[in-house]
Amino acid sequence: MVTGNIASSLVGITVRASVLHGSPRKNGNSDTLTERFLEGLQQTGPHEITHFHLNEMEISPCQGCLACSAAPEHKCRIDDDMQQVYSAYTKSDLIVWATPMYWGYLTAQMKLAQDRMEALAWEGFGDKTFAVLMTYRHHYESAANMFRRIAPHFNIDLHILECCTYDKETGKDVPIEDIPEKQREAYDLGERLGLTSSSS
């Protein structure tokens, strides 16, 4: 977990954001897209950003025991690094889900964390803004549709940005550095969400 303050010369309220990094490779395509998003957010005021690199954390799979349904404050009975995520998540206004697609869906690291959100589904998961930043080679629709399905139920203000990093004509990967339009789109989304939060 890394916490830092992102500030600019513009005056605005503090936005608390938690960034869930689903890629096992740091500084790859999804992380670069996230950096551009946070740069845009940075222009709208002082913000508190907490990063979780899920691949480096000890997070066990959800056991489906539903102990959280009856536990005080719906606390998950598994005492691992997910407790850090719970604490930051519930305090955050903005949740950034940053992940590549593996086999057309969330990475195993991201899926572990998402499944463990069951403990917050009873209380604390909803009434957030989600920025879902996905990089992919062939498919992303299943993951995007999952977020679209749950958003209305939990009163989520959902924003999805997808970026294809594969050229189907040449059969070669395209580094995100060569896709400036998507980097700009991520920057603009971050700036827009920051301005919305600052004016609300």
Q: How would you summarize what this structure contains?
A:
35% of the residues lie in helices and 23% in strands. It has 200 residues and is α/β, with parallel strands linked by helices. The two termini are 28 Å apart.
Could you explain how this protein is built, in words?
The chain has 200 residues and is an alpha/beta fold. It has a single domain, classed as Rossmann fold (3-Layer(aba) Sandwich). It is 35% helix and 23% strand. The protein contains 6 helices and 8 strands. The strands form 2 sheets. A 6-stranded mixed sheet has the order 1-3-2-4-5-6, with helices on both faces. The chain has a two-stranded antiparallel sheet with strand order 7-8. Strand 2, helix 1 and strand 3 form a beta-alpha-beta unit. Helix 1 crosses helix 6. The chain starts with a strand and ends with a helix. 36% of the residues are buried. About 4% of the residues have low confidence.
